[in-house]
Amino acid sequence: MNTLVSNAKPSSILYLDGVSVSFDGFKALNALSFVIEPGELRAIIGPNGAGKTTMMDIITGKTRPDSGEVFFKGTIDLTQKDEAEIAQLGIGRKFQKPTVFESHTVWDNLELALNRKRGVFSTLFYRLTAGDKARIEEILSTVRLMNRKDDLAANLSHGQKQWLEIGMLLAQEPELLLVDEPVAGMTDAETAETAILLKEIAKTRSVVVVEHDMGFIRDLGVKVTCLAEGSVLAEGSIDFVSADQKVIENYLGR
Amino acid sequence: MITSFLAKALGRNIVITVAILLALAALVPALNLLTAPDHPLHVPTYIVSLFGKYLTYALLALALDLVWGFCGILSLGHAAFFALGGYAMGMYLMRQIGARGSYGNPLLPDFMVFLNWKELPWFWQGFDMFWFAALMAVLVPGLLAFVFGWFAFRSRVNGVYLSIITQAMTFALLLAFFRNDMGFGGNNGLTDFKDILGFNIQSNGTRSALFAASAIALALSLVVTSGIVRSKYGKILVGVRDAESRTRFLGYRVEHMKLFAFVVSAMMAGVAGALYVPQVGIINPGEFEPANSIEVVIWTAVGGRGTLIGPIVGAILVNGGKSVFTAAFPEFWLFALGGLFVLVTLFLPRGIVGTARQFFERRKEYRKAKAVEEARAFAAAEPQAAE
């Protein structure tokens, strides 16, 4: 497995090899290895405590691994960088619970997310340019929030907050998007729309989606990685993975 | 660049407040100096100094609000920056005394002669020049805030832990300034000031000028703070307050954002302290008292944290109340202050200005909704007319 993973390193967008981390003796990740190709949309499933969120924490620099390699675009060692640097490199992250700036308007949320100079003085003297305005309007229509642009984010519905957060990630113009449970708490209609939105986004960038909703993953129709106890249990199409005996025992059968 | 920064800064409420402050800066000295003491509009000098002091408190509260109201950093040590600015000004005023001190030493302040010191310590050099002292009143608090903030924010010390170490900072400075061999007059501090920039510090004219300077400093700081919080940077500050990790994952260096606000705030507190000392005529280590910093938090909370006018209103109201209250029932002031804090926290969590603003916004929204409804009812009643 490891040699196979190593060969893929130069051409990959995200490369994890033998990543382990433990908290107070509990092994959250145990020699986790997988590779995401450029432009790929990948779904990650697994029972609670399988290490899905820890994996995202490691990729985005929130947690440092005890051992193992994490590389972005084949050459950039992510274990040496912090959250802000990793975000500036082009990795966006959506949290499990929608996390937007509640006391700002929808428009301001996107303006802050826009991939522009992020220093103290460049933001202090920032002026909205016509280009930035057009970009924000484009994102507003992509995430279907044009008519709510002047409303406070706090007043959006749960599903709209999820979309706003996805819009903020788009504004960041990442090459790799990590999305944690995007349809949790959404209605069926919203779930279906979110699947369309994510497929649309994946046309121009790589996306990793962590999700529990099997129907949603079937809608996405992409390669699935199943995690359990901090390592990869099975990888392949949804039908292949859901037929796997170990997956049924560990996850689906429960 | 600067013009757009200013254009954003000058909202309607800010313009009104700045206008009021500038009008006061002109009017109060005029009424003090140009009217006879028995004139009905005469403002006595003690009132000028008292309100001049309140204005410096308002500036201190505004400084705290920038970090607490807009960035969520509850500093319980802001009086330390205020006191440091005050000491810088006090050192200048001490050196202006010259040979007029009790011991008549032309170079050394009285307390140094008393301690049998032979020469001026190195850190007292330059304080005979006003510009140098004024610069230090801003730079020293700024530098302390920079060093303190650099370590605290980089190590991601947050919430109550940060509050506790800011409190420890001011307490450590309190103990240090109490020591005689620190060279700042120890327990007694610096006092017996004679003149400032060549003018007698007790004279009505100087008192009025200090009042005007305080009002102008507050107005300028209000414009700068407003420019900061209305810029994109200010929106990021609020983002840090409400969802710090989101800000980080958007690629902003949260520690730099906090550090800038903290340093600017400390410098404003330093200016406030430098204006305070000549008006009260003394600076001693008591200004570093942890309780002083906590009082600033109360003024800000009463007026409304996260609004710019709130801390100004709060500082003036609470201190005005304190002056009246301590004259009438000196024993009970601390109970009243504690009670006020509890009441505001429970019933006016947004403070006076925040609650008023919420009321006006709700009324505006209600009127808007009502107008839409009426328009609809009108259209429904007369379908032909609507077409």
Biggest interface goes to: A-B, 30 and 27 residues
Question: CATH class of the largest domain in chain A, anyone?
Answer: Alpha Beta
Q: Give the total of domains of chain B.
A: 1
- Low-pLDDT stretches of chain B are none
**Main sheet summary of chain A:** 6 strands, mixed
Protein name (chain A): Urea transport system ATP-binding protein
Pfam families (chain A): ABC_tran
Keywords (chain A): ATP-binding, Nucleotide-binding, Transport
Domain ABC transporter (chain A): 14-254
Account of the protein in words:
The complex is a heterodimer of chains A (254) and B (387). Chain A is built from eleven helices and ten strands. Chain A is α/β, with parallel strands linked by helices and 254 residues long. In chain A, the strands form two sheets. Chain A has a six-stranded mixed β-sheet with strand order 6-7-8-3-9-10, sandwiched between helices. A four-stranded antiparallel β-sheet of chain A has the order 2-1-4-5. The longest helix of chain A is centred in the C-terminal third of the chain and has 15 residues, at 188-202. Chain A is globular. Chain B is mostly helical and 387 residues long. Chain B has one domain (2-349). Chain B has 16 helices and four strands. In chain B, the strands form two sheets. Chain B has a two-stranded antiparallel ribbon with strand order 1-4. A two-stranded antiparallel sheet of chain B has the order 2-3. Chain B is globular. The mean pLDDT of chain B is 93.
How would you concisely characterize the structure shown here?
The complex is a heterodimer of chains A (254) and B (387). Chain A is α/β, with parallel strands linked by helices.
